[in-house]
Design brief:
Layout: H1 3-7, E1 13-17, H2 21-32, E2 36-40, H3 72-85, H4 109-123, E3 126-128, E4 132-139, E5 142-149, E6 152-158, E7 160-163, H5 169-173, E8 178-179, E9 191-194, H6 203-215, H7 233-236, H8 253-275, E10 284-287, E11 299-300, H9 308-313, E12 320-324, E13 328-332, E14 336-340, E15 348-351, E16 363-365, H10 374-380, H11 383-403, H12 412-421, E17 432-434, E18 442-444
Parallel strand pairs: 1-2, 1-7, 2-3, 7-16
Antiparallel strand pairs: 4-5, 5-6, 8-11, 9-10, 12-15, 13-14, 17-18
Protein name: FAD-dependent oxidoreductase
InterPro entries: FAD/NAD-bd_sf (IPR036188), HdrA-like (IPR039650)
GO molecular function, one term: oxidoreductase activity
């Protein structure tokens, strides 16, 4: 996209800030729904946590008994990635909450992000990688947006603005209220360790060495696991999604800088400690992503908000736009994880109002920043749910822009039909379960 085309962006335009999995689905849906969509991403690759964060196992798409609850563009991207890789699909019919992570879907991030690029091009999304939002304000009924690219500042106008930054950066720059926790969930700096056999590690001897190193300030509990005390988690997972970077809110550039530095310092401590112990002489440590992953920073104050009780009770909102299925999975510096399961048969939902910043005009939010309390956010922050809320925001923005109305005033029946036509699954949708042939194809069975 040229500078000239940026300056002249007018008409039925939707701008999406952030190309994590929420932004990917928002942009593709907005374009498929007829809008001119511009997708702005600070990195040179889409995917967010899935790619640059090194956590490439989105879920959960299927719930109790193998019933699919999240479909649409998110599942389209995941299932097509699996097909390209000739990869196996988990047997979702055997789902159990105790081992819920076994039913997340590992994907190849290289294939996934390349597929996203292709989907953007096919839908007509205009991409701006290596670009960040520098300002957003309303003037004469439109968004006046300033972007910062490699060659300076550029301005454009848009009907609708969607914040998919993960940190509510656009909503904050637009001047709307946010909820910021006093203490955030820890981040994680994911790597891939090799050169040792976790089944042959003498954990008793390693723990003794660890206690000495900890007393000397050479290693911290969060360097090798979640919570306090010695943990084998880092070694068992080969370093993938296995440490905690505590006490930092990465919602702005200063905080994220501190988190990146603290994350790499943690990795260096872990590497030095392990390397000098028997069995780790050939230890290698490689990045799986290029950033420290953030679980929590900010959420919007929305027209509606999902509470932990709403989520755990399976409340079906009158204007549901997405389903959500994951335990409330709150990471904690001392306790490791505080996990609250959903009762048997329960699936959560997200209302339209949770995507609309309170008092805003033509502004939407998707991904982990939607309006909810802290425990609900511990489930709604997950990648599959981010995909679902992103797609909902994309359709809502495009249809509202076309009709010249506020996102909260758009006919819900019209929005629901658009999402259903694009394979979004609602609580009342025909039951979809995994085919018995286990080849990854999804068969539809009507109740």
């Amino acid at each position: 996209m040229t500078n000239a085309s940026i300056e002249k962006s007018v008409g039925n335009t939707v701008v999406v800030i952030g190309a994590g999995v929420a932004g990917c689905c928002a942009a593709i849906q907005a374009a498929r729904s007829g809008a001119k969509c511009i997708l702005v991403e600070k990195n040179g690759i889409s995917g967010g946590t899935l790619s640059v964060g090194g956590v490439s196992c989105p879920g959960l798409f299927f719930a109790w008994g193998g019933r699919q609850v999240i479909g649409g563009i998110g599942w389209e991207l995941v299932s097509e990635t699996l097909k390209i890789c000739n990869a196996a699909v988990p047997d979702f019919t055997k789902f159990n909450m105790k081992n819920f992570w076994h039913f997340q879907v590992p994907v190849n991030p290289v294939v996934f992000t390349a597929l996203c690029d292709r989907k953007f091009q096919e839908a007509g999304v205009e991409l701006l990688y290596h670009t960040m939002l520098a300002g957003a304000k309303r003037k004469n009924g439109r968004w006046q947006i300033t972007l910062c690219g490699k060659d300076g500042l550029h301005k454009l106008e848009a009907n609708m603005l969607i914040d998919c930054t993960g940190d509510a950066n656009a909503v904050r720059q637009a001047g709307f209220a946010l909820s910021i926790p006093e203490e955030c969930q820890p981040g994680t700096y994911s790597v891939r360790c090799s050169g040792y056999d976790p089944e042959r590690v003498d954990y008793e001897a390693l723990q003794k060495a660890y206690l000495t190193a900890e007393a000397n300030g050479e290693i911290f509990p969060a360097d090798l696991g979640w919570g306090s005390g010695f943990s084998s988690l880092f070694l068992e997972r080969h370093g993938e999604n296995a440490n905690h970077i505590n006490g930092i809110n990465g919602g702005d550039s200063a905080g994220k800088t501190r988190m990146e530095i603290a994350g790499r310092a943690s990795l260096l401590r872990a590497y030095r400690f392990l390397k000098r112990n028997p069995g780790f002489e050939h230890l290698e440590m490689r990045y799986t992503g290029i950033e420290c992953g953030v679980r929590e920073s900010r959420t919007i104050i929305g027209e509606e908000s999902v509470s932990a009780e709403d989520y755990r009770s399976g409340k079906v909102w009158p204007e549901t736009v997405a389903q959500a299925f994951y335990p409330m999975d709150l990471h904690d510096a001392e306790r490791g994880i505080v996990k609250i399961d959903l009762p048997e048969g329960v699936v959560g939902t997200v209302p339209r109002g949770a995507l609309i910043p309170k008092g805003s005009s033509c502004l939407l939010a998707a991904g982990r920043i939607i309006a909810c309390d802290r425990m609900a956010n511990a489930a709604l922050r997950i990648q599959a749910v981010c995909m679902a809320t992103g797609q909902a925001a994309g359709a809502l923005a495009a249809l509202s822009a076309e009709r010249g109305c506020e996102p909260g005033a758009l006919s819900y029946e019209l929005l629901r039909k658009e999402l259903s036509d694009n394979h979004v699954i609602f609580p009342e949708s025909p039951t979809i379960t995994q085919g018995e042939n286990r080849n990854g194809e999804i068969q539809i069975h009507h109740d």
